[in-house]
């Protein structure tokens, strides 16, 4: 049965090549643009650390003094050093890390200075974010406490400085000081860089990781957002009225998350009692996906493009519906003859749908090619996420599902109308 | 023409689905195309924003320090660096600039208040820091007051921001703070407890960024007389003599490295002229405008193809009726105008719905994408374009219809 309908559809499609080509092209364009933008959305809104995203929580709170506090404002992203150190000291999460982005100048073997991105954090960072190490190991909590002059470097910096050899134990020259390399990262890039979105949302991992306590001792420059509400000396002093540290906690079970939230509320209440402020404070404890959502990582242009492409697909479909309708009704006499010879309405309906589905399948194949070109085009755009856009198997399948379902959808109305043609009138009227 | 409307409407009632589909397609196309036009126009307006900088001759060097230096050493090095740059044969002037540079894509900005204890800021201003050569180097036009004197320029540590007592502001900021035009000699506060007195006003000085926030405070900038002694690095802005930009860009890093090797100027993007800077900051705008343009063109083409397809079908279906009308005395012109009028009626219904949709989409984008309200002119242009497109696409099938011979009325099957 299907074979017969398939042959009929082929004949019909061949009969009017221009119309067929127009329908295929319309669907291909609609599918191509939609899948390109959906792929970008899919990658940008993806989960960077699926195995742990529900256990990692960004800790934010508003403990500003009264004159800097506005109830309507968003809870600030970062913590003061005072609060971060207090939470680290309490260590109520399964793991916790305070951190800041930074940059430093290191010396290559040839004596050329090299500017590298850095992250200052504490020992829990590595197990928390599942950071793989190729050589050596990460530093310990003891190193944090001892302000040890140690560093973990990225694979690419290791390549650049040491030709990719095991550099554990070697010295990393930072200005006039030096750090001992104790570990080299394996492949690790989180995109989006959810752990700190203030310093480039997409990109490779930082090149040098140093204990926060050591970085403060060495007065290494930080980057990212620093926001102060008082005018006093060094923004990184222990009690400086400045927020600049990101804080993450790992809470393995929902129950622990509830308990941790309670703990933070108690902490804020204690600060209020200590006289830092009189308002009730604000608290935000968000897991990775909530945090990404709150920060709106997907650029608004990308969202706009997605809606535009979906609207475009909609118009393409309406166009296809119109053309299919014209096509089927024009063949009224042929369908009438089939009806008169005993074909049921259902089989007319099926026959028309199969024809529509074939247009959709061919359109989908071309659409996939167009989407491939589209993704290639996006990858050549000078955006920071361009390099990470790729089409995976899921999007490939989704393309075909979208192509087939939308063309069947487009075929529904015309097929319905064709099936309802009365055979007598259809034959007579021509 | 008028006489024909009623029979057309009656005939259309027999083709409800097709009529509806064409009208819907016209409506949706109108809704998307005029919003796209609006976005294109807005983005193109961004591209042509003036910066106030002598862009043909100015380039920027991103200089990062290597090795440990004290604040005093950095300050001395910066002064030595700009002296060396100014002595290059192809260079007219050079200055350090901190806080970013115009069109960099982001940088330092401060809230501005009229009194030190004011809670709600009056407005926001981009902050640039530079010496007495900065105005000439950027090519800014002083329209009132005077430039900084060299004794007003001091080194400033990053950990100790001391608000300078004098400031040069852009005309936009001056007018925002003192709408009566009396800004010169007045003072204001920029997130500090001490006031700054306006000693000069420049005609135009673009902010570092081009974001929504920057647009809301467009052109509002100030310059503090200071060298920011940042341990990380500084920008140098250099103005070449006319026609010597390329040579100056080649010589500048050599001159700096001759001063001291302990610095990093990225060979790839450490030195950029304003063509590159402008290109980079407006890249996404240009990309978006191009994309919107392509989508609009393709949409219009598809809609036109759809109209051609469906009208051709109708003409084919009605050959016999057309023959009867011709036999009864209708002229070719009558047949032609029948199909044109029919399409016009469908088109008018489509654009009516489309106008509502277009405004709806725009309002939705205002809330979702911080877009501005669209002027009705875009809808007007869209309506005209779509009606003309409809008439244009129906022309070929309608001409074919007008050539149907009266003899067809007599043929059966």
UniProtKB/TrEMBL annotation, chain A:
Q: Which UniProt keywords apply?
A: Cell membrane, Membrane, Transmembrane, Transmembrane helix
Q: What is its main location?
A: membrane
User: What are the TM regions of this chain, as residue ranges?
Assistant: 306-326, 347-375, 395-416
Write out the annotated subcellular location: Cell membrane
Pfam families, per the entry: FtsX, MacB_PCD
Which superkingdom, per the lineage? Answer: Bacteria
Q: Its topology with respect to the membrane?
A: Multi-pass membrane protein
For this protein, the record's InterPro entries field holds: ABC3_permease_C, MacB_PCD, Macrolide_Exporter_MacB
Q: Which GO terms describe its cellular component?
A: plasma membrane
Residue ranges of every copy of the ABC3 transporter permease C-terminal domain listed in the record: 309-423
Q: Which stretches make up the MacB-like periplasmic core domain?
A: 20-218
Q: Mind listing the GO molecular function terms for this protein?
A: transmembrane transporter activity
What's the protein name? Putative ABC transport system permease protein
Which taxonomic lineage is given here? Bacteria, Pseudomonadati, Pseudomonadota, Gammaproteobacteria, Lysobacterales
TrEMBL record, chain B:
Q: Where in the cell is it found?
A: Cell membrane
GO molecular-function terms, A-Z: transmembrane transporter activity
Q: Where are the transmembrane segments?
A: 20-40, 288-315, 344-365, 377-399
> What keyword terms does UniProt attach to this protein?
Cell membrane, Membrane, Transmembrane, Transmembrane helix
Q: Where is the ABC3 transporter permease C-terminal domain?
A: 294-406
GO CC aspect terms: plasma membrane
The source's domain of life comes to: Bacteria
Pfam families for the chain: FtsX, MacB_PCD
The record's principal subcellular location, in a coarse class, is: membrane
What are the MacB-like periplasmic core domain coordinates in residue numbering? 19-252
Q: How does it sit in the membrane?
A: Multi-pass membrane protein
Tell me its family: Belongs to the ABC-4 integral membrane protein family.
PANTHER family with a match to the protein in the record: ABC TRANSPORTER PERMEASE YTRF (PTHR30572:SF4), MEMBRANE COMPONENT OF TRANSPORTER-RELATED (PTHR30572)
What this protein is called in its record is Putative ABC transport system permease protein
Q: Which source organism? A: Rhodanobacter glycinis
């Amino acid at each position: 049965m299907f074979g017969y309908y398939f042959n009929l559809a082929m004949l019909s499609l061949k009969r009017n090549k221009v119309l067929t080509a127009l329908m295929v092209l319309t669907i291909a364009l609609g599918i191509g643009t939609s899948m390109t933008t959906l792929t970008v959305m899919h990658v940008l809104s993806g989960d960077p650390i699926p195995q742990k995203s529900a256990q990692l929580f960004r800790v934010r709170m508003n403990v500003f003094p009264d004159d800097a506090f506005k109830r309507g404002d968003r809870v600030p992203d970062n913590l003061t050093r005072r609060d971060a150190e207090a939470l680290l000291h309490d260590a109520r999460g399964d793991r916790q890390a305070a951190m800041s982005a930074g940059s430093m100048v290191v010396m290559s073997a040839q004596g050329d200075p090299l500017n590298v991105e850095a992250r200052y954090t504490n020992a829990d960072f590595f197990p928390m974010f599942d950071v793989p190490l190729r050589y050596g190991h990460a530093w310990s909590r003891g190193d944090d406490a001892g302000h040890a002059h140690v560093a973990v470097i990225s694979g690419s910096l290791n390549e650049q400085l040491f030709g990719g050899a095991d550099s554990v134990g070697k010295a990393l020259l930072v200005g006039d000081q030096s750090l001992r390399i104790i570990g080299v990262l394996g492949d690790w890039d989180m995109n989006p860089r959810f752990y700190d979105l203030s310093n480039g949302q997409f990109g490779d991992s930082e090149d040098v990781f140093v204990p926060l306590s050591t970085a403060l001792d060495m007065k290494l420059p930080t980057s990212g957002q620093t926001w102060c509400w008082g005018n006093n000396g060094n923004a990184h002093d222990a009690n400086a009225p400045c927020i600049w540290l990101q804080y993450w906690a790992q809470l393995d079970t929902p129950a622990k998350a509830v308990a941790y939230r309670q703990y933070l509320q108690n902490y804020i209440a204690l600060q209020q009692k200590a006289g830092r402020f009189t308002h009730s404070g604000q608290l935000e404890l968000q897991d990775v996906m909530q945090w990404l959502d709150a920060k709106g990582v997907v650029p608004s242009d990308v969202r706009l493009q997605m809606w535009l492409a979906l609207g475009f697909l909609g118009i393409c479909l309406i166009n296809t519906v119109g053309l299919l309708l014209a096509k089927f009704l024009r063949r009224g006499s042929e369908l009438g003859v089939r009806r008169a010879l005993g074909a049921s309405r259902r089989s007319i309906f099926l026959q028309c749908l199969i024809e529509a589905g074939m247009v959709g399948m061919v359109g989908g194949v071309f659409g996939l090619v167009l989407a491939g070109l589209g993704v290639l085009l996006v990858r050549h755009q000078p955006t920071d996420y361009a390099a990470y856009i790729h089409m995976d198997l899921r999007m490939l399948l989704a393309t075909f599902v979208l192509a087939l379902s939308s063309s069947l959808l487009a075929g529904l109305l015309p097929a319905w109308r064709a099936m309802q043609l009365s055979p007598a009138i259809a034959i007579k009227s021509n | 023409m008028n006489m024909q409307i009623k029979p057309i409407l009656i005939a259309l009632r027999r083709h409800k689905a097709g009529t509806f589909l064409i009208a819907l397609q016209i409506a949706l196309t109108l809704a998307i195309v005029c919003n796209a036009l609006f976005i294109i126009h807005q983005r193109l307006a961004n591209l042509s924003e003036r910066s106030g900088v002598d862009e043909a001759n100015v380039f920027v060097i991103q200089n990062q320090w290597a090795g440990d230096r004290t604040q005093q050493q950095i300050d001395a090095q910066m002064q030595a660096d700009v002296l060396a740059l100014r002595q290059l044969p192809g260079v007219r002037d050079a200055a350090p600039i901190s806080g970013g540079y115009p069109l960099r894509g982001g940088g330092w900005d401060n809230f501005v208040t009229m009194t030190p204890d004011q809670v709600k800021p009056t407005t926001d201003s981009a902050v640039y820091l530079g010496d007495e050569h900065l105005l000439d180097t950027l090519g800014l036009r002083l329209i009132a007051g005077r430039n900084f004197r060299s004794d007003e320029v001091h080194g400033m540590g990053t950990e100790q921001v001391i608000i300078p007592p004098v400031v040069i502001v852009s005309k936009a900021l001056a007018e925002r703070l003192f709408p009566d035009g009396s800004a010169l000699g007045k003072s204001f506060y920029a997130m500090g407890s001490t006031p700054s007195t306006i000693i000069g006003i420049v005609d135009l000085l673009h902010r570092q960024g081009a974001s929504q926030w920057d647009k809301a405070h467009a052109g509002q900038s100030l310059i503090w007389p200071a060298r920011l002694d940042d341990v990380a690095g500084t920008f140098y802005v250099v103005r070449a003599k006319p026609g010597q930009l390329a040579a100056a860009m080649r010589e500048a890093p050599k001159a700096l490295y001759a001063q001291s090797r302990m610095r990093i100027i990225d060979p790839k993007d450490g030195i950029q002229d304003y063509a590159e800077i402008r290109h980079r900051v407006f890249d996404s705008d240009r990309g978006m405008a191009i994309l919107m343009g392509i989508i609009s063109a393709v949409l219009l083409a598809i809609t036109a193809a759809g109209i051609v397809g469906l009208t051709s079908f109708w003409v084919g279906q009605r050959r016999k009726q057309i023959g009867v009308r011709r036999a009864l005395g209708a002229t070719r012109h009558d047949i032609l105008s029948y199909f044109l009028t029919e399409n016009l009626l469908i088109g008018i219904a489509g654009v009516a719905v489309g106008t509502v949709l277009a405004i709806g989409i725009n309002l939705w984008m205002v809330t979702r994408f911080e877009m501005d309200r669209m002027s009705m002119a875009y809808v007007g242009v869209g309506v005209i374009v779509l009606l003309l497109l409809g008439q244009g696409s129906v022309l070929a099938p309608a001409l074919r219809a007008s050539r149907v011979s009266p003899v067809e009325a007599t043929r059966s099957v």
